[in-house]
Predict the structure.
Amino acid sequence: MNKERKLVIAGNWKMNKTVAEASDLVEGLLLDLKDVKEIDMVVCPPFTALAQVSQQILSTSLRLGAQNMSQHASGAYTGEISAQMLKEFSVRYVILGHSERRQFFHETDELVAIKAQAVHAASLRPIVCVGETLDERESGTTEKVIETQVRGSLAGLDAAKMADTIIAYEPVWAIGTGKTASTGQAQEVHAFIRRLLASIYDENTARLVRIQYGGSVKPNNARELMSQPDIDGALVGGASLEARSFAQIIRSCLN
């Protein structure tokens, strides 16, 4: 796939995998993907496995991501993880505003925006998630919902930081349900997000931003999704928990 923007495919393991299981999964990925250089490949294990995975992927083409991060640098914030703590393990990417964080932990666009600033301040790269629910799609408000989330979650980022930010479009109704937005539906929203970025920033910034699709991405649909002009990668959930399926997704997107 001759894309102007390099594909970035990230595996969000969510609250899965012990340290031993994480180690086995990474071992399998390194065997299957050791020769892949054309795609940015990211694994996002739970915090408890960051140290182990970090050691395993040193000097490889796999990169490490975290599933969340506090907006605070340190202090009395029980249960939170700071940027400096993540950087100790060579974390490069941080997922922010995932629909599960928004739904179960009541994270707002405003909080996501503050976290995005903190991620950039630490010289890390945020993956900012946006997406509509089934009710919102069926009521015809998808674009309104996405615009509100994009404007709110990226508020305060200048053009340079925006160009170094990844957006993940994840229709909430397609996460873990086995349902996938059709290729046309996904491309339509990705194109809308890019046009929106052009209006907020400028055409060049919009052209540089990578926009991932997430929502039941599997080996049998990844290539078609990634072939769309405005889809620049995938944020993969369930299919990233097994080395073979995650590797197949990545390999299916190679030229």
Observations:
- DSSP finds twelve helices and eight strands in the chain.
